[in-house]
Amino acid sequence: MAKNYDLVIVGGGPGGYVAAIRAAQLGLSTAIVEQSKLGGTCLHKGCIPSKALLRSAEVYRTTKEQAHAFGVDVQGISLNFEQAQNRKNGIVDQLHKGIQALMKKGKIDVYEGYGRILGPSIFSPMPGTISVEFEDHRENEMLIPQNVIIATGSRPRFLDGLTPDGNRILTSDDLMTLDELPQSMIIVGGGVIGIEWASMLHDFGVEVTVVEYSNAILPTEDEDIQKAMTKSFKKRGIKIVTNAHLISTSLQKLDSGIEISAEIDGEQQTFAAEKLLLSVGRQANTENIGLENTDIQVVRGFIEVNEHYQTKESHIYAIGDVIGGLQLAHVASHEGIHAVEHIAGFEPQNLELHKIARCIYGSPEIASIGLTEKQAKEQGIEIVVGKFPFAAIGKALVFGETEGFVKMIADQKTEDLIGVHIIGTHATELISEASLAMLVDATPWEIASHIHPHPSLSEVIGEAALAVEGKAIHQ
Question: Which of 68, 245, 450, 454 is labelled catalytic?
Fold first, then answer.
């Protein structure tokens, strides 16, 4: 049986389900095809569950290391990892039910199956009919849309010679379902996901070694942030190894765990641990969704789109991780809104990727927006930089979290703000002020002119803005 829709969305993650809600608001008859659960990787295997566990790790570390300093004496502190997992699962379940309720509220049809794009057929002269395949092998359902949005997301990428087995070689997906923590862990990859897990696992009491191919962890971040995070990790006892070229044939599974070798500055070093986390980026889910039945182009593994997220088939759009760019949930959501509004005949404003905040939820937190100092110089921009430490902020002292700083970069000629980089407590919340400033093309002077409440962590933003002109008050 075939059913007609204005819009069918393949994939129910934060890009897909948000697009569906916006479409429903605009009066479009809408359906989502999702093979697993609404919310996608972000809700079930990524953003939300990892942050829930990071919060448990933070509370455990704070209780062990800082409770006495706050005048709170506790005895017999121990980690109940099963309870931490239960709490995480409860949060995920609550949010999943919330999304399901939103689908009902918007009268959005949800098909729990695998969506595949068909070419021209008896259903439509254009490619785009969606065949929904069900796990219980009942007859496929045919959805005939006027427009399609592909939001199939991504999955962990593998390396030659390192194929996850769910036991000793793990992906971040596997870590979400661990029954118990290992004694030690090698993390291959010092990007965002690897660093978040390194921080969390260390706080849970796991011995962690991070092995990174580049010359620094967090290679896309500002160099001052890289150095500060490396220093913080080493101080805490997390081993950081950079410039490490893995020897894929060196993998050895031992009775006690796993062993792998890498060439570092011309010398071979061997690393051993109970388990290994492979964290080397994500790969777009473009296979087996019927792209071969269309003129859609895939370039370097990602679907090619224009500024409105249209593919070579103008009625088929693609958003989120499947198109590359900034593979972030909030980016996918806004791309979905943009695509829907374009379908509805509006002229939505194009997303400017350099004005979108990026967050890393380790300890300390990191958040950034805009250009790094190196990027600005490579573009020939004459810059001025202001930097201010959390240690000079009263509220940070009250919190007992004084590590880190805010770094603000401005164009010397135009005085426009072009980059903000934060490492320290609540950085992922503080970045929103910088994000708004970037949106409205504010200058550091304008940020500093805003009166920040005292005592508050946000004062560090105002002081950094003053520091751009050498006028910081408390430094």
Answer: 454
